[in-house]
Amino acid sequence: MYYGEFAYQIDNKFRLILPAKFRETSQANYIEKFIATRGLDGCIFLWPDKEWEIQEQKFKALSFTKRNARHFNRMLFSGAAELKADKQGRVLLPGYLREYAGITRDVMVVGISSRIEVWDINRWRDFYNTQKESFEKTAEDLFDVS
After folding, report:
1. 28-52 tens-digit pLDDT
2. How far apart are CA 126 and CA 128, in angstroms?
């Protein structure tokens, strides 16, 4: 659904222009709004509203009697905000999410299949440079390649 990496800048009003490819995908799938929240590894997750509903059921199914589940859900749900793109395809990124992700101006917008991730560009470069060396090893560990 969403694929690729796109370098962008946040404008002076803290709006992000979604990549044209992502706007086209959203329009073709009747996606009008996103749920933004704290992502893992220091990014912001943008979930299309229908996909968020699917993921939300999984998150809510975690046992609230388990400390890690409570902490995870608190961070995830307390950080959630509904975003609607304007006619130019811009979304306003809330200040607390920009702060969480260390975003000031330059960002990398990354398509991860059913969600979009927004990274501070330097944080993305650090992540990428750290992970590119272990990409094949990780694939071997995750998949039974026979």
Report:
1. 999 999 999 999 999 999 999 999 9
2. 5
Q: Would you say 9 and 107 are in contact if contact means Cβ atoms under 8 Å apart?
A: yes
Neighbours of 123 (CB within 10 A): 17
The pTM of the full predicted model, rounded to 2 decimals, is 0.91
Asked if 34 contacts 49 with a C-beta cutoff of 8 angstroms, the reply is yes
Q: How many domains does the chain have?
A: 1
Burial-class residue 72 by CB neighbours within 10 Å (0-12, 13-18, 19+): middle
Report the CATH number that the domain containing residue 114 is assigned in CATH: 3.40.1550.20
Specify whether the backbone of 72 is left (phi greater than 0), alpha (psi in -120 to 50) or beta. Answer: alpha
